[in-house]
Amino acid sequence: MDSMDREESLRARARRVLPGGTFGNFPGDVILSHGQGGRVWDVAGREYVDFLLGSGPMFIGHGHPEVLEAVREQLSRGTTFFANNEAGIALAEAIVEAVPCAEQLRYVSSGSEADLYAMRLGRAFRGRDRIVKFEGGYHGMSDYGLMSLAPKHLANFPQAVPDSAGIPRSVRDEVLVSPFNDLDAVTRLVEARHEEIAGIIVEPLQRLIPPAPGFLQGLRDLCTRFGIVLIFDEVVTGFRFAYGGAQAYYGVTPDLCTLGKVIGGGFPLAAVVGRADIMALFDRAAVGEDRFLMQVGTLSGNPIAAVAGLKTLEVLRRPGTYDAVFATGRRLMAGLEAQVAQAGIAAQAVGEPPLFDLVFAEGTVGDYRATMRADRAMAAHVNQAMRAGGILKGDSKYYISTAHEDRDIDQALDAFRGAMRRLPARPG
Fold first, then answer.
1. Model confidence pTM above 0.90
2. In this structure, are residues 261 and 56 in contact, taking their beta carbons and an 8 Å threshold?
3. Dihedral of the CA atoms 310, 112, 271, 251 (nearest 10)?
4. Catalytic amino acids?
């Protein structure tokens, strides 16, 4: 069986056993075989510059030799224990040292779990039920997280709109929604209902949208004023914008944050971190039975993920690492914007250099409703054409890694140039 036949056979097998023929992540027509550095290959042998990066975890590239060596060494000593282990303790120490809000840490296995527990922790600590989130913000796959992530039918604030079937109607009443980057709106909401509110959860960079000047600090001040728990969802941004995460990059410290992706070095690992007095609710002996927050996970803190994460953080601490990532991202952002400007197309790079996308829209893109102005059909066309040019990316993100080289950016810009030439004719 040649490689093309094998690819089609795998697609058919996937369609038989997987709903929609996918794992629920990336389109099922792509079946990857292996990766190295900033590139991946599919089962038919096609080579891609990888700006998907496994949806972000492979920040130092695929198959990093130091990570592989650390994992190989640990494999012979055990893969999981459901008990404390030295690597997990050492990684926790490294995270607490790096992240401004981190005094203690509790491991889980996914970002969705981390966000779920962070919100539960805020409710338990505050003794209130409601969580404030921002329209368009992603906080995992829990019932609470899947409120007003991408509502197709807009509701009046602060009404929450479920993003999935199967969510109880009662959950809608426990989540209050505000527009991102509108400090006046969230202030009015909190002032009116602070006695009901346990916490505010926010992505410091909401999907792609940077915080407006003063917005994050305004949230910090608002939460301090009313004794509300401020939660930064740093599953994506943690260790990506700076060694201390987005809170170090933007200079605002929350009470809790969630981490994932980068800290596992490509293996399933995430964490809730934060102030010791809040984290104490995970300790029955410290807070008593009534305030104790139960949390158990079979693979939490497993040593394979811990050693991979430790080695990844060691690599990221090396001088010049973040400067290089930002320089790579800036070059790609500038190159893409120059090409759309030359073509007379309304588009802009939105995000920060390690994580951004080109949004085909005019005007400032400062919240979810602004993104609805974007030409999604054009974006889909460009992404498909880029893939044909050997560029792999998600629907709405370029993830930049330390492994990406000048030749990768050159190829991406060439592929984008080709996509621009093949744009469908526009009316008028």
1. yes
2. yes
3. 90
4. 138, 233, 261
